[in-house]
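so the lab meeting is tmrw and i was supposed to have these ready like two days ago... anyway. pasting both below. for each one the top line is the aa sequence and the line under it is the C-alpha cells. i havent really looked at them closely yet so no promises
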Amino acid sequence: MKIGFLDIEWFDVLDVLLLAFLLYQIYFLVKGTIASRIFLGYLLVYLLYLVAKAIGLELLTTLLGYFISVGALALIIIFQQEIRRFLLIIGKSTNIANSRFVMRWFRQPSATEPTTPLKPIIDACKSMSSEFTGGLIVIAKNDDLEKFIQSGDRLDALISKRLLLSIAGQYSPLRDGAVIISEDRIRAARCILPISENDEILTSTGFRHRAAIGISEVTDAASIAISEETGRISLAIDGELYPNISSGELEEKLQQYLMELNKVRKREGGKDTPVE
C-alpha cells in the first residue's frame, strides 16, 4: 500500500501500533512527574526529526539526529528512577522472580529466615500518634536498602517499642530522618530518603510523607509516616500513600505486605516465624 511518497506495509502499521502502545505505557508511568514534561519535549523533537527526514530536509535531519543520539544517553540518566520503577513493575507482574530456581541462585544465603515482628512497630506508631511525635519508619522487603542505611547511623538492634520511641523522642539526636528495619532488626536511624517528585501529590503534603512515598517508589519497601502536627498515621507502598489510617488498618496492610515475602520463603522450604 502506497500513500503519496510513503510505502506502507501491514508490518509497518503493526510496528506503529506497538510503538504507540509502548509510548503510552511510558507516559502512564511518568505521568504526574517532572520527567513527563521532559519526555513529551523529547518526543516532539523526535517527531520533528521523523518529519524532516521524510520530507528530505538534510541539514535539519542531521542536526536533530546529533541531538537525539546524545539525548538518548541523557534520557537514561534523567529517567533512571522511572526505568527502575518500570522494571520493578515487570518483575512484580511475573512469577519468574519468585521462582525457587531464581531465588536459589540470586538470593543471599542466610542461616535463618526471620520475619519482621509487627507488634512493637504498631505499638510504637500508636504511642507516637497519641503523643503527636513525628516519625518515619521504613520496613524492607526484597530490595537491598544498604545505600540508604549508609546515609544514617547504624544501630543493628532488636526491634522494640521503647527503642523506637527513644529514637523518635523530642531530644533524641537520631529523630531526624528515617528508621530502617530489615527482618527482625533496626538497621539504622537518621537515614536520608529520596523525596517523591510526583506532581499529583497534594501541596499540603510535608517532606516526611513525600520521603515515605519516595522510598516506596524506588524500592519495594513499605514506609510509615506519623505526622507531628496531626498525629495521623500514613502508610506508603509501591508509590501509593494511604493517609490517616488506624493502627488496626496499618497492621492489616503490613501483614498483607509481609505475607507475600513469607509465601516465597515457604515455597523454598524454609521455616517461618509467625508474624506477630
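ok protien two:
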Amino acid sequence: MMATTHALAGVLVGMGALAVVPEAGPAVLLAGALGGAAPDLDLLWAHRRTLHFPVVFAAFAAVAAALAWAAPGTATVAAAAFSAAAALHAASDALGGGLELRPWEATSDRGVYDHVRRRWVAPRRWVRYDGAPEDFLLGLALALPAFAALDGPARWAVVGLVGVSGVYTAGRKAMVDGGERLVRRLPPRLLRLIPETLIEDLR
C-alpha cells in the first residue's frame, strides 16, 4: 500500500487515541500519521524488512498504550499512537502485493518480513500493489472520517494526502517504465549516488 494510505490510517489511530485522552492535544494526530508512514523509510535499505516489524511493533505498541493509560499526556499518548500506527503499517503490508518491480504481475512471494519467525510472510494481494485503484479507494475511505472530524490545517493535510495518492495512482505504472529509461541513460558516476535498492530492479 502507498505510504499515504498508511499515513491516513495513522491519522485515524491518532484520532482514536485523542478520543480516549483528548487533553493530549493535536500532536497525537501528527504522531499517528508519522508512525503510519515511517516504516517505508526502509526503501533506502531492505524494504519491508529493515524498518518493518509486524510482531515486535505490536508488542511495543501494547507497552506504549499501557504507559499512556497509566500516565496520560502528550508525550505518552503520541508515542502510543506512533507505535500503533507503525505496527498497523507493518502488519497490513502482508495484505498488499509483493516486492517485485511490477507487483501487478504477482511474481514475488515476499510480503513483509517477520523478524520473530525469521521468514517472509507471503503477500495476500487484497490490495494488489501500492498505487492500485483499490489502494487509492482505501485511502479515500480512511480520509473521509478524518476530513469530517478535523478542521483547519489538519483537514487540509488530509486533503493533501489524498491528492498525492491520486497523482501516484495515476502515474504508478508509467513511473516504472520511465525509471527504467532514466537508469539506462544515467552515467556511472551518477548511478553511484543512488542507493542500490532503488535501482537494482530497474537495470
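from a quick look at the 2nd one: The mean pLDDT is 92. The chain is about 60% helix and 5% strand. will dig more after coffe
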